[in-house]
Each structure stands twice: as C-alpha cells, then as structure tokens.
Design brief:
Elements lengths: L12 E7 L2 E7 L1 H7 L22
Antiparallel strand pairs: 1-2
C-alpha cells in the first residue's frame, strides 16, 4: 500500500478515526508519519473537533 501523502513510499503507519459514525482512514510511510506527528501513539494529535465524550468529566 502506498503512502497517501508522498505517493512514493510504502505505507507502514495506518490510522483510523471514527467520529460520529464517520470513518476516516489514512496510510502513511514512516517519514510522512513523523512529519505529520502521527508516528507516536502516545502523542498523536486527534482532529480538532474531537473532544471528550459527553458526560466524561475526568
């Protein structure tokens, strides 16, 4: 599978967002994942419109 962004390298990082029953998938090569900041699951930024679930006051 090819990287969605550079269209050159093999995608090895695969991300799926599910927001309000809408699924979005993105496939990155290592370099593009690092450039976009999605290579570390601990610090991966969620899309701006994603917040805490309703009722989650933690």
């Amino acid at each position: 599978m090819q990287c969605r962004f550079c269209k050159k390298a093999t995608a090895t990082v695969h991300v799926t967002w599910i927001v309000e029953n809408e699924t979005t998938k993105a496939d990155f090569c290592e370099a593009c994942a690092k450039e976009k900041g999605v290579n570390d699951p601990a610090t991966f930024p969620l899309p701006k419109d994603v917040g805490r679930p309703k009722g989650d006051d933690a």
